[in-house]
Amino acid sequence: MSAPVDDPWARLRSRTSARIGLGRSGAGLPVRANLEFQFAHARARDAVHRAVDFEALAKDLVPMETLTVDSAAPDRATYLRRPDLGRQLAESSEATLATALPCDVLFVVADGLSADAVQAHAAPVVRATLPLLDGLALGPVVLARQARVAFGDVIGHRLAAKLVVLLVGERPGLTVTDSLGAYITHAPEPGRRDSERNCISNIHPGGGQSYEAAARKIAWLGRQGLERGVTGIALKDDLPATQTLPE
Amino acid sequence: MRHLRTTIGGERFTFDSLNQVMACATPLRSGDQLAGIAAESAAQRVAAQAVLADLPLTHFLTEALVPYESDEVTRLILDSHDTAAFAPVQHMTTGQFRDWLLSEEATTEVLAALAPGLTPEMVAATSKLMRNRDLIAVARKIRVTTAFRNTQGLPGRIGSRLQPNHPSDDMQGIAASIVDGLMYGVGDAVIGINPATDSIPNAIALMEMLDEIRLSYDMPVQSCILTHVTNAIEIMDRGAPVDLVFQSIAGTQAANTGFGVDLAVLDEAHEAARALDRGTVGDNVMYFETGQGAALSADAHHGVDQQTLEVRAYAVARRYRPLLVNTVVGFIGPEYLYDGKQIIRAGLEDHFCGKMLGLPMGVDVCYTNHAEADQDDMDVLMTLLADAGATFLIAVPGADDIMLNYQSLAYHDIAYLRESFGLRAAPEFEAWLEGIGLIDGGRLVEGNAPPKALAKMTGDAA
């Protein structure tokens, strides 16, 4: 479905990914433009509703130890309607986290709103980050079904982690359906505000942040957070500009 | 409290408070369920509606849903209530008022005179007794006209916001989206950009670019960079070309605090924008956005349902005689409006309630990818809103906002509504479109290439 060769909009299209110069059938969209839109929306819907294969993800993370838990939202329909349940641990998962495993850094992988992002990018981001956290004590990677960002606070608190790195599937757009986000929270406990986290968003290979770039930022924020005992707005103020991060 | 009980079909229903009656009477929506205040059964919902129907309109002047002492929006509503304007309907119950609105007695002129006499709570309660068709039938009778460099809200017209957002604010990318929109006759309500980078220098750069385009083509349009009102105040101080001042607002003081605003700062911005005196055919200088669920998401809802709180935001808006008010109906997500049915109902409610309070209501007919909605639902809502007489609608290239990552209407959709229902753009803008050759005899000209007349805008040699 590429543009015609003599596309008069070609130069302008190079400056924006907006759907410009679509042409029209009467006042309607031409069939091809309409199908392209519908396909993009269908892919985004599928990314939201598909389930992450957490067994496969656990295999991707070997030799790291993993634990799989559920949020209190039993299914996708409930998850979408009840953000509060997506931040709580299911009773059936209480036993899995019964014993504290004190550590400096705990990775939590939450499915969030894009199964595609989590399936494809969570393991590579964890793998790219690990060497940069050398010398710190790491907990098991917790894989969380029907879970939101603040779910990491609950898990981190239970396992007595000093800092949580939560990877989550971001809400899919029409252009990118597999974007991963990373949230770094010091001293995780229920009730942490969003202003107490640092966020790295837009992690995906299709023009977003690369695994390596994301890993460098996660490691930098994680180490700074542990050293200074704070994450969020207070830490963000001191984050070096992108170009000064070690490449 | 004797009003707050009813018996229907032999079953007795009792409600503890006016807040509970209002919340239970609201058509089902996920945000009220999330707040734990929705009706527990379909029967309880109708019972609450029956209680509301028997409640005198004057009751809303004596019992506040959000405390007067602790909420400046409540104080604004009650202190500015116009009893003379209210007089013609003051003897009515909410149910009688609903019936009267549908009657031939409630004409365009009568409804215009009535608006200052109505409170948001009266209007919200009435809307809960109305079906979608009723919301359309009454809204259609109401005429709200505002102006800046063109006139919005005239009979037989529908305006549109051209929304040329770009994920990195690339000026040429934005210009390309503007040219595309103008080809469809979009942009009379406002050319408005949500900046990707919310800094003052960036906002000024975008404003200067839009102003240059406007001046070089002598376009009768207004521009807006949707940055925080405190930024706008600073930007006006620096002498940048601000046409409209934007702000998101909500229906409680606490929710507005979450947005970083109060009435004092809005007063200050409004005064500063009016002092610039940049309008040519009118002096409406404010552009507000609202949306059901904003107060709950800020944890500032006081146990009041999201639709009633939304209408309270309109009391804030009307203080400033805005050029445009836009309810961004499906942007907030499925935890507030779950599916197409809820989004459609909310869009019609917001439009009706805003118009009843005398506001130039537009709608961003939109949804996110995690809502149970699609473009078919948007087709239904935009068509109903055109029929209801919406002041303006939002439009983006191909219905896909690549910066905010949600779906709105396409430029094509504005052309569809105008062509299929005989609606037109604002007269000043329509004349400009004719003059520059983008329309001919009121119809879009043929051809898909960027128009030569606008070549300068996109950096092409003319």
Automatic annotation (TrEMBL), chain A:
**What is the main EC category here?**
lyase
Pathway assigned in UniProt: Amine and polyamine degradation; ethanolamine degradation
A single cellular component GO annotation: ethanolamine ammonia-lyase complex
Q: Report the principal subcellular site.
A: other
**Catalytic activity annotation:** ethanolamine = acetaldehyde + NH4(+)
Say if the entry is tagged with keyword Transferase. Answer: no
Give a GO molecular function annotation for the protein.
ethanolamine ammonia-lyase activity
Read off the InterPro entries from this record: EutC (IPR009246), EutC_C (IPR042251), EutC_N (IPR042255)
Give the transmembrane region(s): none
* Record note on cofactor: Binds between the large and small subunits.
Q: Key word rRNA-binding present in the record?
A: no
Q: What is its EC number?
A: 4.3.1.7
Q: Which cofactor does it need?
A: adenosylcob(III)alamin
Pfam (any one): EutC
Q: Which Gene3D superfamilies match?
A: Ethanolamine ammonia-lyase light chain (EutC), Ethanolamine ammonia-lyase light chain (EutC), N-terminal domain
Q: What are its GO biological-process terms?
A: amino acid metabolic process; ethanolamine catabolic process
**Family per record:** Belongs to the EutC family.
Subunit field text? The basic unit is a heterodimer which dimerizes to form tetramers. The heterotetramers trimerize; 6 large subunits form a core ring with 6 small subunits projecting outwards.
| Role noted for this protein | Catalyzes the deamination of various vicinal amino-alcohols to oxo compounds. Allows this organism to utilize ethanolamine as the sole source of nitrogen and carbon in the presence of external vitamin B12.
Q: What is this protein called?
A: Ethanolamine ammonia-lyase small subunit
Organism per entry: Allosediminivita pacifica
What lineage, starting at the top, does this entry show? Answer: Bacteria, Pseudomonadati, Pseudomonadota, Alphaproteobacteria, Rhodobacterales
Q: Which gene encodes it?
A: eutC
Automatic annotation (TrEMBL), chain B:
Per UniProt, what is one GO molecular function of this protein? ethanolamine ammonia-lyase activity
Keyword terms: Bacterial microcompartment, Cobalamin, Cobalt, Lyase
* Entry binding sites for adenosylcob(III)alamin: 195, 247, 297, 403
Instruction: Give the metabolic or biological pathway.
Output: Amine and polyamine degradation; ethanolamine degradation
Tell me, which GO biological process terms does this entry list? amino acid metabolic process; ethanolamine catabolic process
Give the matching Gene3D superfamilies: Aldolase class I, ethanolamine ammonia-lyase heavy chain domain like, lyase
- Which reaction does this chain catalyze? ethanolamine = acetaldehyde + NH4(+)
- Where mainly found? other
> Does the keyword Metal-binding belong to this entry?
no
The enzyme's first-digit EC class, named in words, is lyase
Q: What Enzyme Commission number does this protein have? A: 4.3.1.7
Function description: Catalyzes the deamination of various vicinal amino-alcohols to oxo compounds. Allows this organism to utilize ethanolamine as the sole source of nitrogen and carbon in the presence of vitamin B12.
UniProt-listed PANTHER family: ETHANOLAMINE AMMONIA-LYASE HEAVY CHAIN, ETHANOLAMINE AMMONIA-LYASE LARGE SUBUNIT
What binding partners and quaternary form does the record give? The basic unit is a heterodimer which dimerizes to form tetramers. The heterotetramers trimerize; 6 large subunits form a core ring with 6 small subunits projecting outwards.
This one is known as: Ethanolamine ammonia-lyase large subunit
- What species is this protein from? Allosediminivita pacifica
